[in-house]
């Protein structure tokens, strides 16, 4: 395993590790926390004894709760409840280990897990509710007939009711993650404290969304620290941010009317959420005058426009409320709901009550359906963050304020699978980040995983997320169940096939806990139905090994480019931009033409079913494998037949990518990489070097004329012209590895051999040639 310090030397000049979607990165100003230069690594504070030396007696293999986990209101549902000794030993083992990862990789911001075997701490994911010091107390507010406007009488109402605040200090004292997060939130709030209020910036098609989310992020931190300290300096600082966003600060904030930019309603909704949180969490600190001013501004710029949307008076700003199965619906309904719940009862306009009559049903019919039947997000892996944050904030606020999720968790019976999507779409270095990456995240995180863990009795979701760099924020303090124990990887399959009419994609890896692990993911998936955030990318794949990404994505085009979002139709302007075109993906290009937007791929997948065990040190057995084959004939205009397959070889140490194609037009194999590429003299093999590591790539049984060449990641000569004045974004550092063949019938087999330290050349395998139609788990033995 690469050490922390070695990783610190990764390409310091590299841009944002997650493209423009990086939670800590702002494309114009760099990392949002000036105190944290992007090159520096954030070594995580560790509590407790070094994990590597711990051996705790008495392995605990507690079964996962059989019923939905309801904050432990019923301990009898826990298989462990009859055995407090084993429960407490699991918790003491967990507390002794502390925060598992020893730090984050500075390039990819992923957790670095120490090499350790600890069957007591790294047991099957579970809850151990026998520990009263860690369990949340029971909420005394439990209406028998909940209604959105029958709201609890104490404050706060949103996400963090008073009984949880009261219980929090003792839980922080006895739980390492809560302790670490609390400390980080204080640090973050201290950083924001000394910054001037957020400066107004109108960013074309993304409006003032960055402003709204940055303000929301700050308000959450200030409000948290204010309540934890009773120090009014935090309340005053929150007020300065509120005044600023109301246009009453020391510098101007947008136009005189419509300050929250209803034309891009996400902005309006995120400002509304921020004001709602401030109003509710700091309720006891505000004067009546301040409360009146917050309500006034909130109604003027947020809730009144929201009511207009639902009353059908504002189609132009309210398109997101009708048949939109994407993040817009979640974020807009979520922000309006939080704000309405916050001021309901004090609100004299009627807007709050009116909105609560609309938003919940609307989100059930739209937002809840952003999750496809296998858990995949309807848009992209990055847009999942926005959709689930909106959904989780809204649902959690309704549960705490009004005592019910009102169906938001159950109306889509497969919503609970979305955590599985997030885990499998995330490779050891970064997301399988197909399609658009979305705007900067700021207040948006993956902490919905922690909320869904408790709501759906899926402790592995919280165990996965609590180790991530974005886990430390106020919501986690209240969503996290401190009795969560075990290891998310224990018993988790390495592979998963996501396969239904809306999407077909597969993920495979060699370990869940090693940044150096091999990871390969490939998609078929229809090219329409993604809210215009997809690419023409059937057959696209990413490949991680040796702590870096060898085959990667180019990400978003310029959201402000002419007609970038015009449609998903074949003739859309969107498909003129290189990053969205088929040639901009890691797939086959036929006749230099974009894929057919009506593609209807099918997928076959096989897996040895390998699961990781308790240890973070894991080596799959030599027969452990996985493969996926897509029939992509329908994605092309000029092919008679085309299947693309990907499989792991040699105990998941090597990868074979095979294209069996019969095409009437020219065939071009393309892969985008940040590596430096050197092609052998014969042209059938290439050496890729990146981040101090090496990958050998070889064409097996090369068809006549098949050789590697390299190209720049730019549009091809002969492509249709871009709209006048438009340009493609540059892709600095990216090389396209290509193989070009004339029309014909081929089996194109490309073998990837990561140069693993300690693996002799004689231990690499050369697979036999097997047609994709004959691939099986044992076809390459
Ligand atoms: C939370 O973190 C702050 C800053 O480190 C610390 O002063 C405070 O004591 C912590 N709260 C608890 C309850 O431990
Ligand atoms: C919060 O603080 C931590 C620890 O100082 C830092 O690594 C992280 O970048 C900060 N996050 C934000 C969003 O400022
Ligand atoms: C803050 O004030 C409230 C209300 O007086 C009190 O209940 C709470 O214990 C105080 N918290 C701290 C950290 O002083
Ligand atoms: C901002 O100023 C306007 C005009 O004086 C006032 O009506 C409103 O309440 C103020 N809002 C806030 C949040 O201070
Ligand atoms: C999702 O819910 C279904 C139905 O309750 C259940 O069978 C399944 O195990 C759950 N999946 C996960 C990953 O929690
Ligand atoms: C997105 O969700 C809607 C509603 O469930 C569905 O009709 C549509 O086919 C989905 N799109 C994809 C790509 O799954
Ligand atoms: C190149 O590296 C950047 C930064 O880590 C990443 O965003 C991008 O996806 C990578 N590109 C490819 C083609 O791997
Ligand atoms: C695409 O074709 C449709 C239907 O013919 C037409 O309405 C639309 O304007 C065309 N779009 C572009 C960008 O050419
Ligand atoms: C490729 O497909 C296009 C669109 O269907 C068609 O116009 C063209 O003639 C085809 N070319 C070949 C070489 O088959």
TrEMBL record:
Listed InterPro entries: Chondroitin_lyas (IPR008929), Hepar_II_III_C (IPR012480)
TM regions (residue ranges): 47-66
Heparinase II/III-like C-terminal domain mapped to chain residues: 510-705
Primary residence: other
UniProt keyword annotations, A-Z: Lyase, Membrane, Transmembrane, Transmembrane helix
Organism superkingdom: Eukaryota
Any Pfam family: Hepar_II_III_C
Keyword Lyase in record: yes
Molecular function (Gene Ontology), one example: lyase activity
Subcellular localization: Cell envelope
Designated name of the protein: Chondroitin AC/alginate lyase
Lineage: Eukaryota, Fungi, Dikarya, Basidiomycota, Agaricomycotina
């Amino acid at each position: 395993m690469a050490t922390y310090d070695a990783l610190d030397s990764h390409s310091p000049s590299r841009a944002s590790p997650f493209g423009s979607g990086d939670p800590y990165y702002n494309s114009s100003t760099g990392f949002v926390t000036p105190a944290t230069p992007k090159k520096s690594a954030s070594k995580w504070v560790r509590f407790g004894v070094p994990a590597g030396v711990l051996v705790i007696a008495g392995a605990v293999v507690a079964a996962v709760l059989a019923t939905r986990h309801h904050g432990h209101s019923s301990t009898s549902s826990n298989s462990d409840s009859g055995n407090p000794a084993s429960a407490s030993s699991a918790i003491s083992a967990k507390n002794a280990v502390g925060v598992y990862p020893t730090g984050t990789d500075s390039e990819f911001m992923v957790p670095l897990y120490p090499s350790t075997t600890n069957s007591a701490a790294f047991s099957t994911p579970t809850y151990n509710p026998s520990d009263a010091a860690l369990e949340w107390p029971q909420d005394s507010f439990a209406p028998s007939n909940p209604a959105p406007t029958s709201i609890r009488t104490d404050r706060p109402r949103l996400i963090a009711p008073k009984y949880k605040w009261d219980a929090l200090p003792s839980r922080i004292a006895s739980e390492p993650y809560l302790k670490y997060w609390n400390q980080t939130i204080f640090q973050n709030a201290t950083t924001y404290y000394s910054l001037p209020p957020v400066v107004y910036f109108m960013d074309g098609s993304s409006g003032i969304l960055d402003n709204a989310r940055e303000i929301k992020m700050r308000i959450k931190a200030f409000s948290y620290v204010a309540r934890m300290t009773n120090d009014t300096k935090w309340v005053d600082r929150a007020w300065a941010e509120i005044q600023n966003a109301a246009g009453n600060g020391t510098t101007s904030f947008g136009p005189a009317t419509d300050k929250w930019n209803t034309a891009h309603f996400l902005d309006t909704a995120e400002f509304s959420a921020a004001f709602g949180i401030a109003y509710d969490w700091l309720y006891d600190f505000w004067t009546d005058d301040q409360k009146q001013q917050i309500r006034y501004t909130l109604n003027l710029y947020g809730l009144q426009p929201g009511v207009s949307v639902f009353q059908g008076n504002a189609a132009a700003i309210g398109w997101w409320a009708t048949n939109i199965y994407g993040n817009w619906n979640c974020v807009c309904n979520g922000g309006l709901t939080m704000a309405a719940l916050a001021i309901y009862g004090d609100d004299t306009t009627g807007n709050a009550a009116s909105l609560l009559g609309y938003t919940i049903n609307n989100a059930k019919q739209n937002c809840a359906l952003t999750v496809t039947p296998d858990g995949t997000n309807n848009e992209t892996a990055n847009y999942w963050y926005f959709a689930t944050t909106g959904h989780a904030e809204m649902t959690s606020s309704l549960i705490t304020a009004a005592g019910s999720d009102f169906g938001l968790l159950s109306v889509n019976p497969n919503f609970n699978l979305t955590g599985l999507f997030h885990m499998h779409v995330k490779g050891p270095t970064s997301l399988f980040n197909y399609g658009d990456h979305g705007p900067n995240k700021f207040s948006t995180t993956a902490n919905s995983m922690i909320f869904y863990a408790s709501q759906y009795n899926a402790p592995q979701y919280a165990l996965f997320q609590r180790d991530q760099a974005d886990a430390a924020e106020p919501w986690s303090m209240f969503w996290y169940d401190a009795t969560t124990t075990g290891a998310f990887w224990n018993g988790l399959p390495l592979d998963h096939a996501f396969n239904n009419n809306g999407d077909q994609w597969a993920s495979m890896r060699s370990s869940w806990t090693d940044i150096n692990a091999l990871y390969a993911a490939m998609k078929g998936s229809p090219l329409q139905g993604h809210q215009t955030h997809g690419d023409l990318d059937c057959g696209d794949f990413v490949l991680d090994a040796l702590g870096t990404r060898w085959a990667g994505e180019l990400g978003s085009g310029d959201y402000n480019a002419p007609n970038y979002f015009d449609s998903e139709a074949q003739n859309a302007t969107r498909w003129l931009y290189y990053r969205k075109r088929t040639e901009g993906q890691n797939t086959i290009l036929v006749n230099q033409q974009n894929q057919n937007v009506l593609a209807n791929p099918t997928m076959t997948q096989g897996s040895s079913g390998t699961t990781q065990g308790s240890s973070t040190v894991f080596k799959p057995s030599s027969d452990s494998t996985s493969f996926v084959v897509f029939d992509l004939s329908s994605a092309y205009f000029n092919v008679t037949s085309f299947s693309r397959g990907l499989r792991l070889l040699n105990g998941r140490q090597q990868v074979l990518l095979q294209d069996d194609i019969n095409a009437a037009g020219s065939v071009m194999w393309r892969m985008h990489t940040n590596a430096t590429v050197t092609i052998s003299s014969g042209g059938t093999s290439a050496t890729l070097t990146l981040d101090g590591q090496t990958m050998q790539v070889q064409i097996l049984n090369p068809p006549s004329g098949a050789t590697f060449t390299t190209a720049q990641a730019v549009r091809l000569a002969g492509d249709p012209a871009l709209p006048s004045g438009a340009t493609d974004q540059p892709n600095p550092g990216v090389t396209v590895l290509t193989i070009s063949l004339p029309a014909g019938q081929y089996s194109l087999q490309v073998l990837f051999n990561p140069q693993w330290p300690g693996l002799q050349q004689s231990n690499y395998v050369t697979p036999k040639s097997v047609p994709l139609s004959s691939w099986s788990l044992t076809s390459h033995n």
